[in-house]
Amino acid sequence: MFKLTGDVKPEFNRLADIIFYKLKLCGNATVDIAIVDDEQMRVLNRDTRGKDYTTDVLSYPALDKITEFTQKNYPNDYDEDRRAVVLGDIAINENAAARQAKEYGTGEREINYLFVHGMLHILGYDHMTDEDKKKMRAVEESVLAEQDKSVVVAVIGRPNAGKSSIVNAIVGEKVSIVSPKPQTTRDRITGICTEGSRQIVFLDTPGMFKPRTKLDEHMDKSIRSSLGGDADVVLVVLDSTKGITDADERLIEERLKCRAPLYVAVNKTDLKGYEGVYPVLEKLNRYMSRKDGRSVKDVIPTSCKTGQNIDLLKNALFDECKDGGFLFPKDEFTDRPIKFLIGEAVREKALLFLQDEIPHGVGVSVRKVDETTDPIHISCDVIVDKQSHKQIVIGDGGEMIKRIGKSARRDIEQLLGGSQVFLELFVKVRQGWRDRTDILKDIGY
Ligand SMILES: Nc1nc2c(ncn2[C@@H]2O[C@H](COP(=O)(O)OP(=O)(O)OP(=O)(O)O)[C@@H](O)[C@H]2O)c(=O)[nH]1
Ligand SMILES: [Mg+2]
């Protein structure tokens, strides 16, 4: 993505994201923007190009080739602080923009046009020949005319495949908790990723399994509702280390019967490498370019650990966006209230530290979030099934609950934008809580 610095108007960021997506760029790059007046531009033009007159826009490209923007590809142009490749500078003359806007009657659009024009120069476009000019003009027009679009993607697959990890990796925020234990996600979690004119709304679902309790039924219902017409696209996540099972194949066959485009992510490629991934890809071949037209649209090997192909998957999903505006404000990353995210952070740590000691984990109900105090005061009930489980969660001399609290507090402070938090946890026994509608409702399911 582009990290713009200097005189950045909010619309510039949106346009830069659109350029990044349209030109299929990769990595991180930074461009410095200066908005100047006629006189400043004249001086700049004179000092840098020996031309003593003002102009509308000037670009100073730093690179002579454009490829993936990584430190490895551009060791001399990489800025460690900004963690991005320095692409160059652009100066935009706001007096010229105002004059041209009047002349063409295009208002605000003119300064945006100059920005896009300058960015394309930085990226190697020029207008020396008529043909180049036409090409550059076409890209400019398509960037400026781009409308906001969105797509709803249901993420499904077996427990523990890495569905929530993929959603978090693309959204860039921890919207859905992750643990080594299957059935971590209990509810449908919405994760939102907006860049430029495109928005992906993920419906992260619990892993598919046979329901036994009311909580299971709730989880099962949330998978079905994600698929029942709410989603435009389905993403099946497979665990490459587990191979592809009959259940996976049934799932793919079943989803292919619906009209929603289907993508498959073969995840955890970092663990077994190509040896693990290749047999899965080979088996998936039979679902590609089938005669009946019901084919998997793409299979993408991914790793949430190394980030391999996460951008590729994101771009494939951006390609599925349809006109009609955004479904959520562009700076939101989930539709879940902060209280729910706090409870989930506590539950994640309980799952992480207790592993197999407490089958099916615990429930967390957030009692109080008092933001008027400093530090912010939060209290939660950690709900378990039996007295013996309570003892395990508390641990020797309260050691375990302290450990859960300390680790959860760090995540919650991050969620709250770095504010300090005082977190109180109370362990409560509620027999059969997973079958009690009142408790499930209390937790937020
Ligand atoms: N090595 C490696 N581990 C991964 C990768 N993706 C996910 N994991 C791990 O796999 C475990 C399960 O990940 P989750 O994202 O919780 O999986 P899920 O499919 O959402 O699981 P449920 O919500 O239980 O259905 C966690 O321990 C993750 O850290 C990956 O690409 N590589
Ligand atoms: Mg999950």
CA-to-CA gap between the ends?
Answer: 36 Å
What's the rounded overall pLDDT mean?
Answer: 92
Count helical runs: 14
Shape: globular
Q: Estimate the helix proportion, in percent.
A: 40-55%
Q: Which architecture name of the largest domain does CATH use?
A: 3-Layer(aba) Sandwich
**Any idea what the radius of gyration is?**
26 Å
Strand content: 15-25%
Report on the architecture of this protein:
- This protein is of the alpha/beta class.
- It folds into three domains: 2-145, Collagenase (Catalytic Domain), CATH 3.40.390; 149-323, Rossmann fold; 338-443, K homology (KH) domain (GMP Synthetase, Chain A, domain 3).
- Helix content is 40%, strand content 22%.
- The protein is built from 14 helices and 15 strands.
- It has helices spanning 10-22, 38-49, 94-104, 109-122, 130-145, 163-171, 214-230, 246-256, 269-284, 310-319, 338-354, 387-394, 399-415, 437-443, and strands at 2-6, 29-36, 57-61, 78-79, 84-93, 149-156, 189-195, 198-204, 233-239, 262-267, 298-301, 322-323, 363-370, 376-384, 421-429.
- Strands 6, 7, 8, 9, 10, 11 and 12 form a seven-stranded mixed β-sheet that branches. Strands 1, 2, 3, 4 and 5 form a five-stranded mixed β-sheet that branches.
- Helix 1 (10-22) crosses helix 4 (109-122) and helix 4 (109-122) packs across helix 5.
- The protein is globular and about 85 Å long.
- The chain starts with a strand and ends with a helix.
- The mean pLDDT is 92.
- The structure holds guanosine-5'-triphosphate (GTP) and magnesium ion (MG).
- The site of magnesium ion (MG) has 6 residues, from helix 6.
- Magnesium ion binds at residues 163-164, 176, 184-185, 204.
